[in-house]
Amino acid sequence: MHFSDLAILSSILALPVLGVPHPQAQSHLPDGLPSPDTTQVAHIEQVAQGTLPNSPAPTAISNEGIVNLKLIAFNELFEVAFFSELVNNVTNNVDGYTFKRDEDRSSMLEALKAIVAQEELHALRANDALKHFKATQVQPCKYKFPVQNLESAIKLAATFTDVVLGTLQDVVERFARGHDFDLAREIASVIGQEGEQQGWFRALLGKIPSELPFLTTSNLNFAFNAIQDFVVPGTCPDLNEIPLHTFEPLKILDMPGPRSQNISIEFRDPDDEARNPLWVTYINQQNVPVVQPLWVVSKKDKIVEAKVLFPFEEHDLKGLTIASVTKSAGPFGDASQVANHTLAGPGLITVD
């Protein structure tokens, strides 16, 4: 599959962008995950073009390090489910996932199968580490993916990979604070791998491969909530074993473009927090979070619709911006401080 053929993804598809909704994913994962046997692991490594690390595991780990591993396993199992279903849709020529040329389809499958296997190894490594440290391993959930065709699937993959790249920054910092230095180095290698994937997704969508000079940072809690948007409620065997906060969901009702503008948002407010002032805080690049007051337009059955300024021009909010409704105006020094005061989030905005 040549790069020039992929400048615009839809140009290689045999069907228009509109497709039929594809089936809801289940908790069944390929290759015996989350507990493959030795033969299955060897097959995964072959497809992944590389192996699980064979260096000895550290003898000790911090409490924050355990939380990191649980979040990583939770995310990687979700990614395995997403990409394996995408492979299944392309393999079986599901409407919206067919190609004009067989060579484009073959090249796409070769790349996607490698991604599935690489994410499988990430999940195995995190769960194996949890087992080594005698912590509860993370089990898969049942998942639902709001995509209808290859183009929408790649757009979603680019969005959640952006969040992963921001979250792994937080993971490395937490490992470093806990003196989990060996694990920090290993995660740094995964950041590079995820960045390579993200560059490919962006190229497929007709964008330049590298999004920003300094990628938007995030926090484990925001990733934890973003993943739950794709989980069938009540299907995670051990969600309560991951000691992170669950926020109210936040919807961005009209995605902004590359200009400053008022946008509409929607969130659930079970405790009537909107009686008091609320704000929307934007996390973008490696900059100090930006806080804007919101004003409530309507509230019904604990669902609030509000408007808020997206100050694109003043703060150069290019690339991924993570938005959250906060109960404080700050000022916030970093994404972790924002998470500590979040009512609803994350809302994910990307402006290229």
Count of helix runs: 8
Query: Topology as H/E string?
Result: HHHHHHEEEEEHEHE
Share of β-strand residues: 15-25%
Inertia-based shape: globular
Q: Strand order within the widest sheet? A: 1-2-5-4-3-6-7
Structural class designation:
alpha+beta
The main pleated sheet reads as: 7 strands, antiparallel
Helical amount among residues, as a percent range? 40-55%
Rg measurement, Å: 20 Å
Which residue ranges are poorly predicted, with pLDDT under 50 across at least 5 consecutive positions? 1-8, 15-25
Domain unit count = 2
Number of strands: 7
Tell me the span between the first and last alpha carbons. Answer: 25 Å
Overall residue-averaged pLDDT value: 93
Helix and strand layout, with pairings?
Elements: H1 38-48, H2 63-91, H3 102-132, H4 150-177, H5 181-204, H6 220-228, E1 250-252, E2 261-268, E3 279-284, E4 290-300, E5 303-310, H7 312-315, E6 319-326, H8 335-340, E7 342-351
Helix pairs in contact: 1-3, 2-3, 2-4, 2-6, 4-5, 4-6
Task: Tell me about this structure.
It is a single chain. By secondary structure, the protein is an alpha+beta fold. The protein folds into two domains: 3-241, no CATH class; 250-351, Immunoglobulin-like. 40% of the residues lie in helices and 15% in strands. It contains eight helices and seven strands, in the order ααααααβββββαβαβ. The chain has helices at 38-48, 63-91, 102-132, 150-177, 181-204, 220-228, 312-315, 335-340, and strands at residues 250-252, 261-268, 279-284, 290-300, 303-310, 319-326, 342-351. It has a seven-stranded antiparallel β-sheet with strand order 1-2-5-4-3-6-7. β3 (279-284) and β4 (290-300) form a beta hairpin. α2 (63-91) packs antiparallel against α4 (150-177), α2 packs parallel to α6 (220-228) and α4 (150-177) runs antiparallel to α5 (181-204). The two termini are 25 Å apart.
